[in-house]
Amino acid sequence: MVGKDGPPRQRLSLVRAFLGFMALGALVFFSVTLFFTNDAVDQLQTDVLDVAIQARGEHVALDIVKHLEGHWVELENLAQVMPFLDKASMRDFLTQEVADARHVDWAAYVGVQGDVLIASHRRLEGENVSETDWFRQALLPGPHIGISAAADGHQLLVMTMPVQATGGVKAGYLTFHFPLDWLGNMVAEVAKNLALGIIVVDMRGDVVLSTVPHKPSHRDLTSVRNAMAGQEVTTIENWEGIGKVYADSVPEFPASALPPLGWRMVAIISFDQFSDQTARLRLSLGKILGLVSLVLFAMSLGFIRIFLVSLHRLVENAHEIADGVDIIPKENHRTAELSMLSSAISRMQGRMLHAEDQLAARNAKD
User: Fold this and answer.
1) Residues of the chain falling short of pLDDT 50
2) DSSP code of 153?
3) First to last CA, the chain
4) Which helix (H) or strand (E) holds 297?
5) How many whole angstroms separate alpha carbon 91 and alpha carbon 85?
């Protein structure tokens, strides 16, 4: 086509049109695929985190209960046989609990008025502990496990079991005291192995144990409030000093022989916990898409070479024959359409040559 003010403009060829269409189709396909693939990978990461934190959180809660339950059963058994033991034998039992390095810091039998009657290593025997925090908690109905402050300010884990005299009258309290660091260190080790952060709070929301830097703002987080409200849910939150985490609220600990602890737990896991795995998954998907691109490109080149180039040659033959060039048309029978076009060009050339021969014969007679 010739323009009014310039040289002829080159028309779009079928090969270029095909390549442009394939490139546009590939761009749309890969854009849509990457969008939905990234969304699917993000959802997969969320689902994996959800399952992982729930399973690992339950594991930590069960470990806490098992560690406490063993000592509680010993305390319970000792309280049952205590009315039948003499004072010296009872002191030996209590001292053995401490001497066995089973984490018990102090074991004692205390009267209902707070007088220490028998104690491990005779520690505090004869003294009155009625004003201590743990004894006031022991006066509450039933057996008790809780956190109390020692005289030096350190926190203690205290187990207290009422002791009944032979006539069924309450005779006193049998108690085991543990340094809270013992339980805290155990929880920290388990949490580290499971790549978790753990916060345990009591019914008032006060922190009992924490394996992460605790901030006052953590108390107002949705996961902590859910645990306090007795709701077991998982949430995505931003924790001050930690960052984006996946949090699981554990409103109660597994059933056991322990009395109600009244503790709630929140387990957190870094949102980037499986980032390396998801990055490798995205890289693998990218490689697959790249390989598909190469295959499509090779197939496109093959299609052009086998079909479009052949069609282009036949078109060139037709154009040359129309211009009067005496050539032998190329035969091509790869497809029905190419075969028909090839035959039509050959017939057209034959008729043109026949017409030229007849015209030459007439001119010769004249």
Assistant:
1) 1-3
2) S
3) 41
4) helix 275-303
5) 10
In the block, residue with structure tokens 């040359």: 320
Cβ-proximal residues to 362 (8 Å cutoff; 6+ apart), any chain: none
Distance between CA atoms of residues 303 and 311, nearest Å: 11
pTM above 0.85, yes or no: no
Q: How far apart are CA 180 and CA 193, in angstroms?
A: 20
What whole-number distance in Å separates Cα of residue 230 and Cα of residue 314?
80
Q: Which two tokens stand for residue 17?
A: 């049109």
Residue 115 DSSP one-character state? B
Phi and psi dihedrals of 83, rounded to 5?
Answer: -60, -15
Q: How many CA atoms lie within 13 A of 176 on its CB side?
A: 27
CA distance 151 to 121: 19
Cα separation, 249 vs 57, whole angstroms: 9
> What's the pLDDT score for residue 229?
83
The CA distance from 314 to 292, in Å, is: 32
Query: Which one, of 249, 246, 280, 285, lies nearest residue 264 by Cα?
Result: 249
342 sits in which H/E element: helix 336-365
Q: What is the CA radius of gyration of the chain?
A: 44
Phi, psi of 107 (to 5 degrees): -130, 135
Contact assessment for residue 314 and residue 330, using Cβ atoms and an 8 Å cutoff: yes
Q: Is 151 exposed, middle or buried (0-12, 13-18, 19+ CB in 10 A)?
A: exposed
The answer to whether the beta carbons of residues 56 and 268 sit under 8 Å apart is: no
Q: Given this model, what pLDDT does residue 366 score?
A: 65
- Report how far residue 78's alpha carbon sits from residue 54's, in angstroms, rounded to the nearest whole number: 36
pLDDT at 110: 92
Other C-beta atoms lying within 10 Å of the C-beta of residue 148: 20
Neighbour tally for 97: CB within 10 Å: 20
Cα gap 349→323, rounded to integer Å: 11
Q: Which amino acid is at 143?
A: P
pLDDT of residue 274: 60
Helix (H, G, I), strand (E, B) or coil at 207: strand
Max Cα-Cα span within the chain = 154
The pair of three-digit structure tokens given for residue 263, joined into one six-digit string: 């503790």
